[in-house]
Structure formats: structure tokens, C-alpha cells
Amino acid sequence: MDYTSIKTLGELRAAGYTTQSVKDEIRKNLSAWIKKGKALPGILGYENSVMPQLESALLARHNILFLGLRGQAKTRIARSITQLLDQYIPVIKGSALQEDPFNPITQESKDLAAELGDSLPIAWQSREERYGEKLATPDVSIADLIGDLDPIKASNLGISFDDPRAIHFGLIPRAHRGIFVINELPDLQPRIQVGLFNILQEEDIQIRGFNLRLPLDILFVFTANPEDYTNRGSIVTPLKDRIESQILTHYPKSISVGRAITDQEVDLTKEQIEQVHMSNAMKNLIERIAFVARNSEFIDAKSGVSARLTIALRELTIAAAERRAFQFNTSKTTCRIQDIYTALPAMLGKVELVYEGEQEGAQAVAIKLVSEAIRLEFMEHFDLPNKASADGKNHHKQFNKVVQFFSDGKELEIPRNISDEDLKGALAELDGLLEIASTIEEYEEAPTFWLEFVLHGMAEHSLISKDFMTEGHVFGDLLQDMLSQNPLEGFEDYQEE
User: Fold this and answer.
1) Residue 469, SS3?
2) Nearest in space to 75 (alpha carbons), one of 196, 177, 179, 199
3) What percent of the chain shows pLDDT beyond 70?
4) Which pTM value belongs to this model?
5) If you count Cβ atoms within 10 Å of the first and of the last residue's Cβ in the chain, which end, N or C, has fewer?
């Protein structure tokens, strides 16, 4: 039934409307969702881990702490819980705390309700307005979260400072009858965390000597990085004890889940979608880079590798291909391996190195991550070049012609700025390369990608060499290259170009 046309408490009472606590409201709506097989939309990869725990916590009417590394959708999950609220609820019109007309909690609203009775005016608050969020930082104060005396308000009302009406309420009281999220909880100073004790348990607050009994009706959701307990701060033990459910989040368990998350989050223009084609293998390759990074000895595992890395990397890779299309005035283009190297800036700010500025530079580590990802993705599409089969024989004869081409002393330079047609023509002339690439079912959809991918994959499996040059890559004979130069030589010039 639609009650939103009702304007007074008397009409609301006559209509038989009853109010619930926010946790009971979420419990009611969630139970209906579960019976219908519905789930919170947009949360991928947590169907059998986080979501059952979250739903159980909400059914138990618990406050929640999400623990996980950066980029694990903790805030997204918290924000999604608003969809379990009723679409609209009645509030006392003009109330700073959006109070329940049946149960006012401030003295001002109580006095107003006693004076007006059934004529008390009401307004309707949407579920989107019932969400509050604060990023915890060391400079957050009790006044920010809970409130403080407001001299200007006291002066305008002509009241003294010992009148509760002089209080200006903070973010938490203003989230009354809704959801309030504190992100990065360990960053709050311990004395500020202590200020949350009574709100969570005893439902009273203290402001400048006022001891107010405010039965705030709030679902609290906190997020934290487990490593913050030692790096920047900690959650004080009594506060953790008052948060009933602690849920651990995690990164995607498979390439397909990671890719689905990136598909959902990537932000492309209509022109990019129409002009630039990215093959499925390229999308998987970008996801694989993140998986490799999370297991890399050069990356600080405590900081994690956010899903934002793959999102930004895909966007920048597509932008690099788009730039090439503009340069050569073509209406369509395909993302190539070269575009990933052009898009390395999307990676450099999203990984923290174990040996920052010492043994491995950020650029060199990024190159290693891309190389390992190419090596692994190559194995998904071709027989392992260096692996003998059960009969003891090596069955990678398909690569022999390409290897022989370079063994004869030839080199192949692939410039960064080369059109798709020119690249396809140059690579197709390499004896045996087209024969290998065309065995892939998707070859015709992205021929330049697959031709270049075969070369890079062979290089990562040590069949041929791959060196950086100022304008791109040069491929050659592996033995000759090992005897002549450092394979990363020229990379600095390549980046500066």
C-alpha cells in the first residue's frame, strides 16, 4: 500500500501504518528476497563466501565489520544494503534526526508531538537518504561524528548553553533510522573509537557535559584493512567486542570472475565501444596480470592489488588503441599487446613494491608482471612449447618455422606507431606465424592481436628473444640476443618517448 500521500500523524495512525527498527526492516525485506531467490546486485565473486555470511548477519540484526585488502568491494557491499530498506518511511517534518512520528527521541520533537497531537506534520524519506558514510582519518573528531554545542544556534534560539536544544548533532545521530558506514576504522584515533562504545551498546551519548539518552536506530557497518592493525592503527578491543559480526572479504578466485567484475566497472564511451575491439584473450590477459601481481615476490602482499588495477588497465589499453585509430584515421581498430605496454601507467600507482626504489624499479616490475601474464595466457591457447608429451617427444613443430626465421640471423621490429594493416602485412610475411595464429577460432575477429600475441608468447617461453627499443619491440634469435645485450635495454627511452 502506498502511504506517501499521508501528511499528518493522525492520518498515518488511521491508515494502520506501523514502524519498525531499521534492523527489523532490513530483516523483513531480506527474508522476502531470499525466499524469492534474489540477491544484492552488482556483488560478484562472493556468492558462496561473503554473501551468505552477510545475509546471516543481517538476519541476526548485527552490526558488521568487513575486513579485507583494498579493492575488495567492502564499501560497495555496504552501500548496496540500502536496497533492503523500505522505499519510503515517515519522518517528523523538519526534524534534524528524521525521527519516527510515533517515537520522537529529541526533546524538541517530543514537545512538538505533545503540542500538535494527531496534527503533527510528517514527510517521507527515501531509502537513498537513509545512508551515511564517513572515511575515518586521524583528524576526525567527536564533534564530527556525534556533535557539539552550537553557539550560533543557541543565540538564534535565545537559549543558554545548558539547554539541549543548543546541541548541533554530528553525522551519526543524523543517520538515525538508517545505515551508517565508517570506512578504514583503524585510522580513527583510539579516543574517538571509545566515543562509539555507548552508541553501539547503551544508546546514550555525551556532548560537552550533556548525558543524553538517545535511542538511535542505526545499522552500523565498518570496513578495515587487516594490516592496518599494525601499519597505521588498530581497532580498540572493546569496540571490536561490540561489533557483532566480522566478515572477511577476498579477491576474485578465478579469471572469469575477475573479468566479470571489470566488465561491470569499466567506464567506456560510446565511441570507444564502437571503434575499439578487445578480444576475449586480451581481457583475460589483463585479469591475469592482477593475479600474477598478487602472487609476485616483488609486490607487497600486505597492501594487496586492487580490482581497480584491471579496470584502469583495460580503460587505458582501449584508450591507447583509440589513439592509434585517430592517428591513422581508421574507423575500427583492435587492441594489441603493444597497447598494454603503452598503458603501464595504469599499473604503476596501484602496486606497492617490497623493495621500493632498491632492487626492482616499478617499471621493471610492471614489465615482469606483464611478461608472466603473457606466458600463462599463451599456455591457455597453444600446446606448451617446451613440454614433452607422454611419449617423450616434443610436439611444438608448429613453432619451428618462426624459430628458424630468427635463427637465420633475421630480426623483426614492431614499432609502437604502426597501423593495423601495416602490422598485419608485416607479420603475415613471417614464415609460419600466420599458420600458428590462424588455428585460434577467434583469429578473424582480431588478427593483429593474435599475430602479435604469438610472437610475445614465444618470447616469454624462450623460443625467440624480445627486446625493448625506443619505438616498440624487436624480436630476434634467443641465443644471439643473450650474447649481445640486456633484454631490458632501451626501456627507459621507450617510456620517455
Assistant:
1) strand
2) 179
3) 88
4) 0.85
5) N
